[in-house]
Amino acid sequence: MDIKAVILAAGKGTRMKSDTPKVLHKIFEKPLLGYVLDNVKNITNEAFVIVGHHAEEVTEFVNKNYESAKTVLQSPQLGTGHAVSMVCPSLENFEGQVIILCGDTPLITEKTLKDFIDYHNSCSSDLTVMSTIFENPTNYGRIIRETDNSLKCIVEEKDATPEQKAVKEVNAGIYCLNWSKIKCAFSQLTSNNAQGEYYLTDIISWGKKNNLNVNAYILGNSDEIYGINSRQNLATATKIMNDRKLADLMDNGVTIVDPSSTWISEDTEIGADTIIYPATYIEGKNKIGQKCKIGPCAHLRGNVEIADNCKIGNFVEVKKAKIDRNTNAGHLSYIGDAQLGAHVNIGAGTITANYDPISKTKSKTILKDNVKVGSNTVLVAPVEIGEGANIGAGSVITKNIGEWALALTRAPLRIIEKWVKH
Ligand code: UD1
Ligand code: CA
Q: Which of 24, 252, 373, 388 is most exposed by smallest CB count within 10 Å?
Protein backbone atom coordinates (compact mmCIF):
# COMPACT_ATOMS: atom_id res chain seq x y z
CA MET A 1 0.00 0.00 0.00
CA ASP A 2 1.21 3.44 -0.91
CA ILE A 3 1.16 5.52 2.30
CA LYS A 4 2.31 9.10 2.74
CA ALA A 5 2.70 11.00 5.99
CA VAL A 6 1.82 14.62 6.60
CA ILE A 7 3.36 16.09 9.74
CA LEU A 8 2.09 19.42 11.02
CA ALA A 9 4.91 21.58 12.26
CA ALA A 10 4.09 25.15 11.22
CA GLY A 11 2.49 26.39 14.43
CA LYS A 12 4.01 28.99 16.66
CA GLY A 13 4.19 27.13 19.95
CA THR A 14 3.48 30.32 21.91
CA ARG A 15 3.28 28.52 25.24
CA MET A 16 6.92 27.37 25.02
CA LYS A 17 8.02 31.03 25.41
CA SER A 18 11.02 30.35 23.21
CA ASP A 19 13.01 31.62 20.24
CA THR A 20 13.35 28.02 19.12
CA PRO A 21 10.43 26.61 17.11
CA LYS A 22 8.45 24.17 19.24
CA VAL A 23 9.11 21.09 17.10
CA LEU A 24 12.88 21.66 17.39
CA HIS A 25 12.86 21.53 21.16
CA LYS A 26 14.74 18.42 22.16
CA ILE A 27 14.41 15.29 24.22
CA PHE A 28 17.79 13.56 24.67
CA GLU A 29 19.29 15.92 22.09
CA LYS A 30 16.81 14.88 19.39
CA PRO A 31 14.17 17.37 18.24
CA LEU A 32 10.53 16.46 18.82
CA LEU A 33 9.95 16.43 15.07
CA GLY A 34 12.76 13.87 14.70
CA TYR A 35 10.85 11.38 16.85
CA VAL A 36 7.77 11.70 14.67
CA LEU A 37 9.77 11.41 11.44
CA ASP A 38 11.61 8.33 12.76
CA ASN A 39 8.32 6.67 13.64
CA VAL A 40 6.81 7.08 10.19
CA LYS A 41 10.04 6.25 8.32
CA ASN A 42 9.37 2.52 8.06
CA ILE A 43 5.64 2.63 7.40
CA THR A 44 5.37 5.39 4.81
CA ASN A 45 7.28 5.98 1.60
CA GLU A 46 7.26 9.77 1.76
CA ALA A 47 6.68 12.36 4.45
CA PHE A 48 5.59 15.99 4.02
CA VAL A 49 6.41 18.31 6.87
CA ILE A 50 4.31 21.47 6.97
CA VAL A 51 6.53 24.34 8.06
CA GLY A 52 5.71 27.96 8.78
CA HIS A 53 6.89 29.51 11.99
CA HIS A 54 10.73 29.56 11.81
CA ALA A 55 10.38 27.66 8.54
CA GLU A 56 14.07 27.96 7.61
CA GLU A 57 15.29 26.28 10.79
CA VAL A 58 12.77 23.47 10.60
CA THR A 59 13.47 22.95 6.89
CA GLU A 60 17.20 22.80 7.53
CA PHE A 61 16.70 20.12 10.19
CA VAL A 62 14.49 18.03 7.90
CA ASN A 63 16.72 18.32 4.83
CA LYS A 64 19.83 17.50 6.77
CA ASN A 65 18.46 14.42 8.50
CA TYR A 66 15.62 12.91 6.47
CA GLU A 67 16.13 12.10 2.82
CA SER A 68 12.62 10.91 2.07
CA ALA A 69 10.94 13.91 3.71
CA LYS A 70 9.94 17.15 2.01
CA THR A 71 8.91 20.41 3.60
CA VAL A 72 5.93 22.43 2.43
CA LEU A 73 5.52 26.06 3.47
CA GLN A 74 2.31 27.24 5.12
CA SER A 75 2.24 31.02 5.35
CA PRO A 76 0.28 32.47 7.02
CA GLN A 77 -0.75 29.71 9.44
CA LEU A 78 -4.52 29.58 9.39
CA GLY A 79 -5.06 26.38 11.32
CA THR A 80 -4.48 22.64 11.15
CA GLY A 81 -6.96 22.09 8.29
CA HIS A 82 -5.33 24.85 6.28
CA ALA A 83 -1.94 23.25 7.04
CA VAL A 84 -2.94 19.91 5.48
CA SER A 85 -4.44 21.67 2.45
CA MET A 86 -0.88 22.80 1.59
CA VAL A 87 -0.07 19.27 0.33
CA CYS A 88 -3.10 19.11 -2.00
CA PRO A 89 -1.11 20.24 -5.08
CA SER A 90 1.61 17.62 -4.43
CA LEU A 91 -0.94 14.85 -3.93
CA GLU A 92 -3.39 15.79 -6.66
CA ASN A 93 -3.43 12.38 -8.29
CA PHE A 94 -2.44 10.31 -5.27
CA GLU A 95 -4.63 7.23 -4.74
CA GLY A 96 -3.24 5.76 -1.52
CA GLN A 97 -3.54 6.56 2.18
CA VAL A 98 -2.34 9.61 4.06
CA ILE A 99 -1.58 9.57 7.75
CA ILE A 100 -1.54 12.92 9.46
CA LEU A 101 0.41 13.54 12.67
CA CYS A 102 1.51 16.50 14.73
CA GLY A 103 5.18 17.36 15.09
CA ASP A 104 4.69 18.05 18.80
CA THR A 105 3.66 14.50 19.76
CA PRO A 106 6.96 12.59 20.09
CA LEU A 107 5.82 9.67 22.24
CA ILE A 108 3.83 7.90 19.53
CA THR A 109 5.37 4.56 18.53
CA GLU A 110 5.73 2.83 15.19
CA LYS A 111 3.82 -0.16 16.57
CA THR A 112 0.80 1.99 17.45
CA LEU A 113 0.83 3.60 14.02
CA LYS A 114 0.88 0.15 12.41
CA ASP A 115 -2.03 -1.03 14.59
CA PHE A 116 -3.88 2.17 13.72
CA ILE A 117 -3.47 1.62 9.97
CA ASP A 118 -4.44 -2.06 10.35
CA TYR A 119 -7.58 -0.96 12.17
CA HIS A 120 -8.38 1.56 9.43
CA ASN A 121 -8.05 -1.20 6.81
CA SER A 122 -9.99 -3.81 8.79
CA CYS A 123 -12.99 -1.42 9.09
CA SER A 124 -12.72 -0.51 5.39
CA SER A 125 -12.67 2.99 6.79
CA ASP A 126 -12.42 6.09 4.62
CA LEU A 127 -11.30 8.23 7.52
CA THR A 128 -10.05 7.12 10.94
CA VAL A 129 -9.09 9.37 13.80
CA MET A 130 -7.08 8.22 16.81
CA SER A 131 -8.62 8.98 20.18
CA THR A 132 -7.85 8.19 23.78
CA ILE A 133 -9.33 8.68 27.21
CA PHE A 134 -7.83 11.36 29.43
CA GLU A 135 -8.91 11.84 33.03
CA ASN A 136 -8.05 15.50 32.50
CA PRO A 137 -9.00 16.26 28.88
CA THR A 138 -8.40 20.04 29.13
CA ASN A 139 -7.01 21.64 25.94
CA TYR A 140 -7.65 18.65 23.70
CA GLY A 141 -10.42 18.40 21.12
CA ARG A 142 -13.30 16.27 22.41
CA ILE A 143 -14.72 13.33 20.48
CA ILE A 144 -18.48 13.76 20.26
CA ARG A 145 -20.51 10.63 19.50
CA GLU A 146 -24.09 10.00 18.40
CA THR A 147 -26.49 8.16 20.72
CA ASP A 148 -25.68 4.94 18.82
CA ASN A 149 -22.00 5.58 19.71
CA SER A 150 -20.92 6.28 16.14
CA LEU A 151 -18.76 9.37 15.57
CA LYS A 152 -20.41 12.73 15.15
CA CYS A 153 -17.73 15.41 15.25
CA ILE A 154 -14.74 16.80 17.15
CA VAL A 155 -15.21 19.94 19.22
CA GLU A 156 -12.23 22.05 20.31
CA GLU A 157 -11.94 23.12 23.95
CA LYS A 158 -12.56 26.75 23.03
CA ASP A 159 -15.76 25.92 21.13
CA ALA A 160 -17.11 23.32 23.58
CA THR A 161 -20.23 23.62 25.70
CA PRO A 162 -19.83 22.68 29.41
CA GLU A 163 -21.49 19.37 28.58
CA GLN A 164 -19.00 18.67 25.78
CA LYS A 165 -16.09 19.71 28.00
CA ALA A 166 -17.02 16.89 30.38
CA VAL A 167 -16.27 14.32 27.65
CA LYS A 168 -13.02 12.48 28.39
CA GLU A 169 -12.48 10.93 24.99
CA VAL A 170 -10.09 13.26 23.17
CA ASN A 171 -8.66 13.68 19.71
CA ALA A 172 -5.08 12.45 19.53
CA GLY A 173 -4.43 14.54 16.41
CA ILE A 174 -3.54 11.49 14.30
CA TYR A 175 -5.62 10.57 11.26
CA CYS A 176 -5.61 8.04 8.45
CA LEU A 177 -7.38 9.05 5.24
CA ASN A 178 -8.15 7.39 1.96
CA TRP A 179 -6.84 10.44 0.22
CA SER A 180 -8.89 10.45 -2.96
CA LYS A 181 -12.14 10.38 -0.95
CA ILE A 182 -11.22 13.07 1.58
CA LYS A 183 -9.03 15.49 -0.37
CA CYS A 184 -11.94 17.65 -1.54
CA ALA A 185 -12.86 18.36 2.12
CA PHE A 186 -9.89 20.71 2.36
CA SER A 187 -11.38 23.22 -0.06
CA GLN A 188 -14.66 23.17 1.85
CA LEU A 189 -13.54 23.78 5.46
CA THR A 190 -14.63 27.06 7.06
CA SER A 191 -13.08 29.11 9.85
CA ASN A 192 -16.36 29.81 11.56
CA ASN A 193 -15.22 28.99 15.13
CA ALA A 194 -13.83 30.50 18.33
CA GLN A 195 -10.25 30.67 17.01
CA GLY A 196 -11.12 31.78 13.47
CA GLU A 197 -9.02 28.89 12.13
CA TYR A 198 -9.53 26.18 9.53
CA TYR A 199 -9.75 23.12 11.78
CA LEU A 200 -8.55 19.76 10.52
CA THR A 201 -10.93 18.22 13.05
CA ASP A 202 -13.88 19.36 10.92
CA ILE A 203 -13.13 16.62 8.37
CA ILE A 204 -14.93 14.21 10.73
CA SER A 205 -18.31 15.91 10.43
CA TRP A 206 -17.58 16.55 6.72
CA GLY A 207 -17.02 12.82 6.22
CA LYS A 208 -20.24 11.97 8.05
CA LYS A 209 -22.22 14.47 5.94
CA ASN A 210 -20.79 12.94 2.81
CA ASN A 211 -21.76 9.43 3.89
CA LEU A 212 -18.21 8.19 4.22
CA ASN A 213 -17.13 5.45 6.59
CA VAL A 214 -15.65 7.41 9.52
CA ASN A 215 -14.20 5.64 12.59
CA ALA A 216 -12.24 6.26 15.75
CA TYR A 217 -9.42 4.04 16.96
CA ILE A 218 -9.25 4.27 20.74
CA LEU A 219 -5.67 4.05 21.95
CA GLY A 220 -5.22 2.25 25.28
CA ASN A 221 -1.93 3.83 26.32
CA SER A 222 -2.76 7.51 26.33
CA ASP A 223 0.85 8.47 27.15
CA GLU A 224 1.72 7.96 23.50
CA ILE A 225 -0.26 10.90 22.26
CA TYR A 226 0.85 13.31 24.93
CA GLY A 227 1.29 16.62 23.09
CA ILE A 228 3.93 19.18 23.98
CA ASN A 229 2.74 22.74 24.33
CA SER A 230 4.80 23.97 27.29
CA ARG A 231 8.12 23.42 29.06
CA GLN A 232 6.32 21.44 31.74
CA ASN A 233 4.90 19.17 29.06
CA LEU A 234 8.44 18.75 27.68
CA ALA A 235 9.77 17.60 31.05
CA THR A 236 6.85 15.21 31.51
CA ALA A 237 7.34 13.72 28.04
CA THR A 238 11.06 13.24 28.69
CA LYS A 239 10.25 11.34 31.87
CA ILE A 240 7.67 9.14 30.15
CA MET A 241 10.10 8.35 27.35
CA ASN A 242 12.87 7.55 29.82
CA ASP A 243 10.70 5.29 31.99
CA ARG A 244 9.62 3.42 28.86
CA LYS A 245 13.24 2.95 27.75
CA LEU A 246 14.50 1.80 31.15
CA ALA A 247 11.67 -0.73 31.47
CA ASP A 248 12.48 -2.08 28.02
CA LEU A 249 16.21 -2.37 28.82
CA MET A 250 15.53 -4.15 32.11
CA ASP A 251 13.18 -6.56 30.32
CA ASN A 252 16.09 -7.35 28.02
CA GLY A 253 18.62 -8.13 30.72
CA VAL A 254 20.22 -4.80 31.56
CA THR A 255 20.57 -3.90 35.24
CA ILE A 256 19.55 -0.34 36.04
CA VAL A 257 20.58 0.16 39.66
CA ASP A 258 18.53 3.31 40.20
CA PRO A 259 15.89 4.05 37.55
CA SER A 260 15.00 7.31 39.28
CA SER A 261 18.39 8.88 38.55
CA THR A 262 19.22 7.23 35.23
CA TRP A 263 18.47 8.79 31.84
CA ILE A 264 18.87 6.82 28.64
CA SER A 265 17.80 7.93 25.17
CA GLU A 266 15.47 5.86 23.03
CA ASP A 267 18.22 5.48 20.42
CA THR A 268 20.65 3.73 22.76
CA GLU A 269 21.10 -0.03 22.47
CA ILE A 270 22.53 -1.89 25.45
CA GLY A 271 23.52 -5.57 25.65
CA ALA A 272 22.48 -8.04 28.35
CA ASP A 273 24.27 -8.16 31.69
CA THR A 274 25.50 -4.64 31.40
CA ILE A 275 25.03 -2.67 34.62
CA ILE A 276 24.13 1.00 34.60
CA TYR A 277 24.97 2.66 37.91
CA PRO A 278 23.10 5.68 39.33
CA ALA A 279 23.16 9.24 37.98
CA THR A 280 24.15 8.21 34.47
CA TYR A 281 22.96 10.33 31.53
CA ILE A 282 23.04 8.85 28.04
CA GLU A 283 21.81 10.99 25.14
CA GLY A 284 21.82 10.62 21.35
CA LYS A 285 22.46 7.41 19.45
CA ASN A 286 24.73 4.84 21.09
CA LYS A 287 25.47 1.16 21.17
CA ILE A 288 26.79 -0.48 24.33
CA GLY A 289 27.77 -4.15 24.42
CA GLN A 290 27.22 -6.89 26.96
CA LYS A 291 28.69 -7.15 30.46
CA CYS A 292 29.78 -3.53 30.59
CA LYS A 293 29.72 -1.31 33.66
CA ILE A 294 28.64 2.27 33.09
CA GLY A 295 28.67 4.91 35.80
CA PRO A 296 27.91 5.96 38.45
CA CYS A 297 27.79 9.53 37.13
CA ALA A 298 28.84 8.75 33.55
CA HIS A 299 27.81 10.94 30.61
CA LEU A 300 27.55 9.45 27.12
CA ARG A 301 26.79 12.14 24.59
CA GLY A 302 25.98 10.24 21.41
CA ASN A 303 27.72 8.41 18.56
CA VAL A 304 29.33 6.18 21.15
CA GLU A 305 29.99 2.53 20.42
CA ILE A 306 31.26 0.39 23.25
CA ALA A 307 32.03 -3.30 22.79
CA ASP A 308 31.57 -6.04 25.43
CA ASN A 309 33.19 -6.05 28.87
CA CYS A 310 34.14 -2.41 29.03
CA LYS A 311 34.03 -0.10 32.00
CA ILE A 312 33.14 3.59 31.83
CA GLY A 313 33.34 4.78 35.39
CA ASN A 314 32.47 7.82 37.43
CA PHE A 315 32.74 11.28 35.95
CA VAL A 316 33.73 9.98 32.56
CA GLU A 317 32.30 11.80 29.54
CA VAL A 318 32.31 10.04 26.18
CA LYS A 319 31.29 11.48 22.83
CA LYS A 320 31.68 10.22 19.24
CA ALA A 321 33.94 7.35 20.19
CA LYS A 322 34.41 3.73 19.29
CA ILE A 323 35.70 1.59 22.11
CA ASP A 324 36.71 -2.03 21.63
CA ARG A 325 36.20 -4.86 24.14
CA ASN A 326 37.77 -5.11 27.61
CA THR A 327 38.74 -1.47 27.69
CA ASN A 328 38.41 0.65 30.82
CA ALA A 329 38.14 4.34 31.52
CA GLY A 330 37.37 4.22 35.20
CA HIS A 331 37.55 7.76 36.51
CA LEU A 332 37.37 11.46 35.67
CA SER A 333 38.10 11.40 31.95
CA TYR A 334 36.97 12.94 28.68
CA ILE A 335 36.99 10.76 25.59
CA GLY A 336 35.78 12.57 22.47
CA ASP A 337 36.34 11.93 18.74
CA ALA A 338 38.33 8.87 19.65
CA GLN A 339 38.93 5.28 18.72
CA LEU A 340 40.12 2.97 21.47
CA GLY A 341 41.30 -0.58 20.79
CA ALA A 342 40.77 -3.66 22.94
CA HIS A 343 42.35 -4.05 26.38
CA VAL A 344 43.16 -0.37 26.63
CA ASN A 345 43.42 1.20 30.06
CA ILE A 346 42.76 4.89 30.48
CA GLY A 347 44.16 6.27 33.73
CA ALA A 348 42.17 8.64 35.91
CA GLY A 349 42.01 12.20 34.65
CA THR A 350 42.95 11.46 31.02
CA ILE A 351 41.71 13.96 28.46
CA THR A 352 41.49 13.71 24.69
CA ALA A 353 42.08 17.32 23.69
CA ASN A 354 40.00 17.11 20.54
CA TYR A 355 39.08 20.74 20.00
CA ASP A 356 41.18 23.54 18.59
CA PRO A 357 39.37 26.72 19.62
CA ILE A 358 41.30 28.86 17.12
CA SER A 359 40.53 26.91 13.96
CA LYS A 360 37.30 25.62 15.59
CA THR A 361 38.04 22.13 14.31
CA LYS A 362 37.93 18.78 16.03
CA SER A 363 40.53 16.06 15.58
CA LYS A 364 40.73 12.39 16.32
CA THR A 365 42.63 10.40 18.93
CA ILE A 366 43.45 6.79 18.09
CA LEU A 367 44.68 4.32 20.68
CA LYS A 368 45.52 0.84 19.35
CA ASP A 369 45.01 -2.41 21.29
CA ASN A 370 46.69 -2.80 24.68
CA VAL A 371 47.66 0.84 25.07
CA LYS A 372 48.02 1.92 28.72
CA VAL A 373 47.59 5.59 29.45
CA GLY A 374 48.90 6.88 32.80
CA SER A 375 46.76 9.14 34.95
CA ASN A 376 46.38 12.82 34.19
CA THR A 377 47.49 12.54 30.57
CA VAL A 378 46.45 14.95 27.84
CA LEU A 379 46.28 13.41 24.37
CA VAL A 380 46.44 16.36 22.00
CA ALA A 381 44.61 15.36 18.82
CA PRO A 382 45.20 14.50 16.04
CA VAL A 383 47.32 11.81 17.61
CA GLU A 384 47.80 8.06 17.30
CA ILE A 385 49.29 5.74 19.92
CA GLY A 386 50.62 2.45 18.54
CA GLU A 387 49.77 -0.98 19.86
CA GLY A 388 50.91 -1.78 23.36
CA ALA A 389 52.53 1.60 23.98
CA ASN A 390 52.62 2.96 27.52
CA ILE A 391 52.26 6.58 28.49
CA GLY A 392 53.64 7.79 31.77
CA ALA A 393 51.37 9.60 34.19
CA GLY A 394 51.06 13.34 33.78
CA SER A 395 52.14 13.43 30.11
CA VAL A 396 51.09 15.80 27.38
CA ILE A 397 51.22 13.82 24.15
CA THR A 398 51.52 15.94 21.03
CA LYS A 399 53.11 13.43 18.62
CA ASN A 400 52.26 9.97 17.40
CA ILE A 401 53.82 7.21 19.52
CA GLY A 402 55.08 3.95 17.97
CA GLU A 403 53.98 0.50 19.11
CA TRP A 404 55.29 -0.86 22.41
CA ALA A 405 57.09 2.42 23.18
CA LEU A 406 57.13 4.22 26.51
CA ALA A 407 56.30 7.92 26.21
CA LEU A 408 56.42 10.46 28.95
CA THR A 409 56.77 14.21 29.31
CA ARG A 410 57.77 14.96 32.80
CA ALA A 411 59.86 17.54 34.63
CA PRO A 412 62.51 15.68 36.65
CA LEU A 413 61.51 15.09 40.24
CA ARG A 414 63.68 17.05 42.68
CA ILE A 415 64.00 15.96 46.25
CA ILE A 416 65.77 18.26 48.66
CA GLU A 417 66.39 16.26 51.79
CA LYS A 418 65.26 17.80 55.12
CA TRP A 419 64.31 21.05 53.30
CA VAL A 420 61.39 21.62 55.60
CA LYS A 421 63.45 21.43 58.76
CA HIS A 422 66.15 23.78 57.38
C1 UD1 B 1 -4.95 19.93 17.99
C2 UD1 B 1 -6.37 19.49 17.60
C3 UD1 B 1 -7.05 18.91 18.83
C4 UD1 B 1 -6.23 17.74 19.36
C5 UD1 B 1 -4.78 18.16 19.62
C6 UD1 B 1 -3.93 16.92 19.88
C7 UD1 B 1 -7.19 20.96 15.80
C8 UD1 B 1 -8.04 22.11 15.47
N9 UD1 B 1 -7.13 20.63 17.10
O10 UD1 B 1 -5.08 20.95 18.98
O11 UD1 B 1 -8.36 18.46 18.51
O12 UD1 B 1 -6.81 17.24 20.55
O13 UD1 B 1 -4.21 18.80 18.47
O14 UD1 B 1 -2.63 17.24 20.26
O15 UD1 B 1 -6.62 20.35 14.91
N16 UD1 B 1 -0.10 23.64 13.05
C17 UD1 B 1 0.26 23.96 11.75
N18 UD1 B 1 -0.34 25.03 11.14
C19 UD1 B 1 -1.31 25.76 11.74
C20 UD1 B 1 -1.70 25.40 13.07
C21 UD1 B 1 -1.07 24.34 13.69
O22 UD1 B 1 1.13 23.32 11.17
O23 UD1 B 1 -1.82 26.69 11.11
C24 UD1 B 1 0.56 22.49 13.69
C25 UD1 B 1 1.30 22.84 14.99
O26 UD1 B 1 2.64 23.19 14.72
C27 UD1 B 1 1.20 21.55 15.79
C28 UD1 B 1 -0.08 20.91 15.26
O29 UD1 B 1 -0.41 21.55 14.04
O30 UD1 B 1 2.28 20.67 15.53
C31 UD1 B 1 -1.23 21.06 16.24
O32 UD1 B 1 -1.44 22.43 16.48
P33 UD1 B 1 -1.74 22.98 17.94
O34 UD1 B 1 -1.91 24.43 17.87
O35 UD1 B 1 -0.76 22.43 18.90
O36 UD1 B 1 -3.18 22.31 18.15
P37 UD1 B 1 -3.86 21.89 19.50
O38 UD1 B 1 -4.48 23.09 20.13
O39 UD1 B 1 -2.92 21.10 20.33
CA1 CA C 1 -0.72 20.65 20.37
A: 252
